[in-house]
Write a structure and sequence with these properties.
five-stranded parallel β-sheet; 5 strands; single chain
Length: 459
């Protein structure tokens, strides 16, 4: 069973990986849980998530994930908040912060909010969460560093600050300006480096450990008692919300899928064609999951090698640049290749069945009549001439000349660098089949051209 965890400023990746072998993703925003749930992991853990500049992870996508048999954990930050809100539906909360939200001791989102640096700087926190300030000041009072009155005043000062401004040096400066006992403030300042409590980090680690125990002990798919309603709002959010860029975008904030779709829509017919291809991909992957297809590490590696070779990405620098431009981490690239391996299997096993649906697609698109008419005329013409299966000798060409004729004269483009790849991309079962098709087309075109020269009216 695989595990995915959304984490950012709460816990450094190096620490997280020591606790749980999982795929770690940036802070979640709306659509991310749905997107990952479609990969059918066993467990999803939510620690960090966006909530201000972009839409926050939606309750409904978590409910949908659980209805698909996926166990969803939450802790520390927005994960604790969502877990408290959805505990009655089966989301599993972990840690002190989750318990405080569940018991209504905490209510505000800003209790767990922090400002942080971008992904390139590992989401380094730039402020301190209010829940960590509360835990730290409670510890300071219990250790005799500050008294009850100072403790309560410091909490009031911290809560009044906008969350990106919550730092102990700012809180202490405000406290000094209000005239709090200088001796207590100096004692607190000296105590903080060793005494500060990182409750969010502690809760996140506890969640990862619980997830690891669940994975090690084995478990059945999640069972829920509710019926998931596919409302119009859900369908709209499912189709349009999401995070196309799993990393922090250079201009600040995640790149929403809707913005990418806008660029595609304004390109005209390309949207319709891309949408049809994406629909086919979606349904095909669903079928591989339904059939329980699990690619081996070898088949995934083969798919990755083939993809890099066919796209000119064999050199690491080119591959690294491609991943950056396509907003993919190494883990996400391998997930993409796992999907490609599934699709390769399905294409190989369902090729004939798919081909049987092509005529109906051509009829609906209005292309069948023209293609069928030309195919019949070609077949008739070549049979009369005894060229049903022509050879290079019949055409009077070498293979290189045939390729030059096809690519440069017919398609008005350079000859493909990788002919076997071109054959696969255009649906030919082999290069021999491709060559035979070209020979038939050359002979047919030559006969038509000769006929038109003898009888111009025929054109």
């Amino acid at each position: 069973m695989s595990a995915y965890v959304f984490v950012g400023p709460t816990l450094p990746l190096e620490e997280a990986r020591k606790e749980l072998d999982a795929v770690y993703l940036p802070p979640a925003c709306q659509g991310d849980v749905y997107r990952i749930a479609r990969k059918r992991p066993g467990i999803i853990g939510i620690i960090d998530g966006y909530f201000e500049r972009v839409p926050a992870v939606w309750h409904k996508e978590i409910l949908w994930a659980m209805s698909q048999g996926i166990h969803v954990f939450g802790s520390a930050s927005i994960g604790a908040l969502r877990a408290a809100e959805l505990a009655a539906f089966g989301m599993e909360g972990v840690g002190t912060i989750f318990q405080a939200y569940e018991q209504n001791e905490l209510e505000d989102d800003d209790e767990v909010a922090v400002a942080h640096l971008p992904a390139e700087q590992d989401y380094e926190p730039a402020s301190t969460a209010m829940v960590d300030i509360r835990a730290t000041l409670a510890s300071a009072e219990s250790n005799g560093v500050v008294g009850r009155a100072t403790h309560e005043t410091l909490l009031r000062i911290a809560k009044a600050l906008y969350y990106p401004e919550r730092r102990f040096e700012r809180i202490l400066a405000c406290a000094a300006a209000e005239g709090l006992p200088a001796q207590e403030l100096k004692g607190l300042e000296a105590w903080l480096p060793s005494g500060q409590v990182d409750q969010k980090r502690n809760d996140a680690i506890e969640m990862l450990r619980q997830m690891r125990c669940r994975l090690e002990s084995g478990f059945e798919p999640k069972q829920v008692r509710y019926h998931f309603e596919h409302t119009t709002l859900w369908e709209k959010a499912r189709l349009t919300a999401g995070n196309a860029d799993p990393a922090e975008h250079p201009q600040g904030g995640p790149l929403l899928l809707e913005r990418v779709l806008d660029e595609l829509r304004i390109s005209g017919d390309k949207y319709r064609l891309t949408h049809q291809a994406a629909l086919a991909r979606c349904l095909s992957l669903d079928e591989t999951w339904r059939q329980g297809i699990r690619p081996t590490a070898e088949t995934v590696q083969h798919a990755a090698e083939q993809f890099r070779r066919e796209n000119g990405l064999c050199e690491f620098t080119a591959f690294e640049q491609w991943m950056k431009q396509n907003h993919l981490s190494v883990e996400e690239f391998l997930e993409l290749m796992e999907d490609e391996a599934r699709l390769n299997w399905l294409e190989a096993s369902a090729g004939l069945e798919v081909a049987s649906h092509v005529p109906d697609h051509l009829r609906v698109s209005g292309e069948y009549e023209k293609l069928a008419g030309r195919a019949l005329d070609k077949q008739h013409t070549l049979e009369i001439c005894g060229l049903a299966n022509p050879t290079l000798a019949d055409a009077g060409l070498t293979y290189e000349e045939l390729l030059r004729w096809y690519f440069q004269e017919c398609l008005k483009r350079p000859i493909a660098d990788d002919i076997p790849r071109y054959c696969r991309a255009t649906g030919f079962v082999s290069e021999d089949a491709f060559r035979t098709s070209l020979l038939r087309e050359f002979c047919y075109s030559s006969k038509n051209s000769a006929t038109q020269k003898r009888n111009p009216a025929a054109s």
